[in-house]
Hints:
Distance between the termini: 68 Å
CATH topology of the largest domain: Multidrug-efflux Transporter Regulator, Chain: A, Domain 2
Largest sheet: 2 strands, antiparallel
Number of strands: 2
Strand order of the largest sheet: 1-2
Number of domains: 2
Shape: flat
Strand content: under 5%
Structural class: mainly alpha
Number of helices: 5
Amino acid sequence: MTQATFGIGDLAREFGVTTRAIRFYEDQGMIAPRREGQRRVFQPRDRTRLKLILRGRRLGFSLAEIGEIVDLYEAPAGEAAQLKLLLDRIAARRAELKAKRRDLNASLDDLDAAAKNCRKRLKEMENGRSGKS
DNA sequence: GTTCTAACA
DNA sequence: TGTTAGCA
Length: 133
């Protein structure tokens, strides 16, 4: 069975990060594990947040940005006004990510073009020519 | 052995 | 963030 709680070492091993990094994220207010005396006790939800944090890191977001984004996933406060505000923020974030995706696709295309150019020159060299005139 | 805080590279 | 020190 999937355990109900985790120690900092468990999560560090599972996600391949140092315990130091996890404590750092806590200092930054991105996760708030329960305490048992001084020991940190992580609930499944903390584990999920950590997973989101690491994904954000892979996407190149600053820790501050990741903190804002992760908060968007958390349960809303309940007030209609707050829910609407949250929707606005989510929409804004989605727009940013889509823009980022477009840039990624453009970069991918550029790299593809560069690779094709390399192959072309390579073929020319193999044919005994010097490439460009 | 493991986790904790704090401070320094 | 990594590392290290001194505790519990």
